[in-house]
């Protein structure tokens, strides 16, 4: 249940509500204080004079649910407006990882020319093997800051663990919480305590309920700028890297108020399938699309098989614009 707290509510009674119930969070989203709990099912009598709107949610989907806000949240940063009723499908593109200044400048130059506004690249890579390239770390963040400055692109980059979450929050326009990091409550809480937009990727073994609950950690911390990203889940199929759960995307659009981004690159794992999946996802009217592109995919230090080369990306983007138009949306 979400109980909005009136401006002059008695603090002692708010405290009493906290003491008497388990799992109660007090949240402030910059405009409104609220008490959120799954154990409280009705407003206690003593609290009625201090309560505004009271919303009973059927599950632990509370702030992310349609019963709290029956629409899609709009998130804006720099030149970008995403979600809401903008009709925008925001393209996020860039290499898997920052490898060198020359590499990211080359990609950023292409994106600027195409009118793409959001550049992605990881500096702290959550690799499956400790012997693989782990990313350039803080040096990579500095290089990304230069890209923002010089090319006017918004930057999304990922946080791998709680040791560098503050640095990523400081440098990024959107903080990406990866598929493996989305269970890290240190990261989720730190992102909840800031106002930076946060893109949470669904873990490959994560149910939709668990995925939304990860978002609830950020939302209940007071950060209302949360975006969900479907990037493929593990199924019995091994011919592709993961399985892109477009059913899940439909579910999230129907049952949550959060913008939804689709990442076909990590789902497919191979460049050949990415354009078709990207067009299929755009046809669903998604709020954003994330694609990995690289000047020389064969020699990429991570995710080499799935990154599109720049000519292939140059062919894909206009076709995405056409698909978006056909469903009444616009690629931005
Ligand atoms: C990435 O975006 O490069 C990445 C590592 O993604 P995921 O967390 O979805 O595997
Ligand atoms: Mn990657």
Structure description:
This protein has two domains: 54 residues; 258 residues, Alpha-Beta Barrel (TIM Barrel). Strand 7, helix 2 and strand 8 form a beta-alpha-beta unit. Helix 2 packs parallel to helix 3. The strands form three sheets. It has an eight-stranded parallel beta barrel, surrounded by seven helices. It contains ten helices and 15 strands. With 332 residues, it is of the alpha/beta class. The protein is globular and about 65 Å long. The protein binds phosphoenolpyruvate and manganese (II) ion (MN). The site of manganese (II) ion (MN) has 5 residues, from loops.
Poorly predicted ranges (pLDDT <50, ≥5 residues)?
none
Q: What structural class is derived from the secondary structure elements?
A: alpha/beta
- Supply the number of helical segments: 10
In spatial order, strands of the major sheet run 7-8-9-10-11-12-13-14
Radius of gyration: 20 Å
Give the CATH superfamily of the largest domain: Aldolase class I
Please count the beta strands (DSSP E, at least 2 residues each): 15
Q: What is the annotated CATH architecture of the largest domain?
A: Alpha-Beta Barrel
**Main beta-sheet strand count, sense and barrel state:** 8 strands, parallel, barrel
CATH class value of the largest domain:
Alpha Beta
β-strand amount: 15-25%
User: Bound compounds, please?
Assistant: phosphoenolpyruvate, manganese (II) ion
Helical coverage, percent range: 25-40%
Mean pLDDT: 96
What do we call the CATH topology of the largest domain? Answer: TIM Barrel
* Broad shape: globular
Taken together, the total number of domains comes to 2
H/E topology pattern: EHEEEEEEHEHEHEHEHEHEHHEHE
Measured between the Cα atoms of the first and last residue, the distance is 36 Å
